[in-house]
Each structure stands twice: as C-alpha cells, then as structure tokens.
Amino acid sequence: MEQTAPQKGTVTQRAIERIKAMIAEGRLEPGQRLPTERDLAAQLGISRSSMREAIRALTVLGVLEARHGSGIYVTQLQAGDLLETFGVVADLSRGPRLVELLELRRILESTATALAAARITPGQLATVEKHLTAMNASDDPEEILAHDLAFHREIAVAAGNETMAAILEGLSSRTFRARVWRGYQEEGAFDRTRREHAAIHRALAARDPEAARTAAASHVGEVETWLRSQLSGGAAPSAAGTAGTE
After folding, report:
1. Is 77:23 a contact under the CB 8 Å cutoff?
2. CA 2, CA 160: separation in Å to the nearest integer?
3. In the list 16, 72, 87, 164, which could disulfide-bond 170, CB 3.0-4.6 Å?
4. Residues 166 and 83: beta-carbon distance below 8 Å
C-alpha cells in the first residue's frame, strides 16, 4: 500500500518540532529572521516541500510570520498570538463540549478574578466599573454583550498573568459567548447577571481575593448549570445562538 502521504506528514511534523526546538534552545530568537527555505531544509535534511508545510503550520499557530518581500521571522511569541487559535475550539463546539468549556472558564476566571482583586490598579478598576455601568444602563443585547466581554477581559488583564488572560480570551470569544449568553438571558436571568457582575465589582473594589473568587465562580457556575439543564432536556444553543437539538 502507498505510504507516501503518512511519511510526508511525519517528516513535516519532525520539521515543526526541530524549528520549535531551535526557538526553545535560543538558536532562533523572537523577531529573528529564519534562514531561507532552501537553507533550512538542507540544514534539517528534509525536502523543501516538507519545510514549506512546516513553516505554514507554524505561521498558523502564531510562532512564525511571513513578511512580504523580507522572509520568514519568529514572532514575539506573545501568549495572545500563540493561543489565538484556541478560540476556534470554543466557536465550533456544541453540546457537552460547551459545558466542558464553561467548566474550564469557571475554574480559570475565578482564579483570575481572585488575582485581580489583589493586583488591579485604580485605572483598571475604573474601567471595570465603566463597563458595569454601561451594561446596567443599556437595553440593547449586542451592546450589553460587548460590555460584558470587556468587563471580564479587563479583569483577566488585571490578574497580571498573560497566558491565563489569553486562554480566557479564547474561552470568551464573542461568537461563543453570544451563543450561550443569548439563550441564558431568554430564561429571564438578566437581573441575576446584573447582581452577579455587581458582586464581582464590589469584591474587586474591596481588594478581597476570596470574595472575588466566589463571586466569579458563582457567576459562571450559574450559566454552566443552566446549560447542563438545557442539554439534559435535549436542547442546547446552536451555532446561530438559538435553541437546537443535539
């Protein structure tokens, strides 16, 4: 049986791992230009086509970037760039996996909010309050959702952990949040979410990490519980944000 395709995939994966190792070992630094495709392929002992595929894959992952007319460079390797594709998982997930993602978000967001309570600056706290006020003042679902996203994003940044913030950004993609959020609000939960956001803000303002952790866990946990109940009844938010059948 023809084995060319699997072998090519294996060679490409090996090239990906070799380039990653060169970066991890400091032989390629953030912002540094890679050798030409021909030279790098010769250096690693693989074909130019496999090298091209490896470079393409690492570019998609945010490890490398192509600069028109200049060549291929190592990116600055920021967590936000490297974890950008993580949001695709949230955007495309359905059914039980949505619950898994909310479970993960509950764990990480409660931790991030606790860290933020200890580290948030006055300016960041003012921004959180601004988005809370805007959420409470608006009747437009799209505007409320935008401020809801910004509210939680500012808290994640205030936690001071770039990697955690990048993961939460993926878990809080607008598409994913819109699918779950709209259905949840249709169940008459908007007043409750106002109170939950206010509790998070109070804990941040009080610089109380444990109260902040509890408030954030309760907030995400309410949505998680609602979604579990929807799935047990056979319905879940569809890709369009309306109830569908799994």
Report:
1. yes
2. 52
3. 87
4. yes
Q: Which residue has the tokens 């760039």?
A: 81
The single residue listed with the structure tokens 């819109």 is 178
Model pLDDT for residues 104-128, shown as the tens digit of each residue:
999 999 999 999 999 999 999 999 9
CB neighbours (10 Å) of residue 61?
16
Q: What is the DSSP letter of 72?
A: E
Q: Which domain holds residue 49?
A: 4-77
DSSP 27: S
Q: What is the DSSP letter of 241?
A: S
Task: Among 19, 47, 77, give the residue marking a domain's end.
Answer: 77
Q: Which of 30, 61, 77 is the last residue of a domain?
A: 77
Q: Which of 101, 31, 106 minimizes the C-alpha distance to 72?
A: 31
Residue 92's CB: how many other CB atoms inside 10 A? Answer: 11
pLDDT at 32: 94
Do residues 66 and 181 share a domain?
Answer: no
Alpha-carbon distances of 130 from 116, 124, 125, 126, 201, rounded to whole Å = 16, 10, 9, 6, 11
- Evaluated on CA atoms 166, 167, 169, 175, the torsion sign reads positive
Together in a domain, 117 and 155: yes
Amino acid making up residue 122: P
- pLDDT for 128-171, tens place per residue? 999 999 999 988 878 888 899 999 999 999 999 999 998 898 88
Alpha-helix runs per DSSP H in the chain: 4-24, 37-44, 48-60, 79-82, 86-92, 96-119, 122-137, 141-158, 162-171, 174-186, 190-205, 209-232
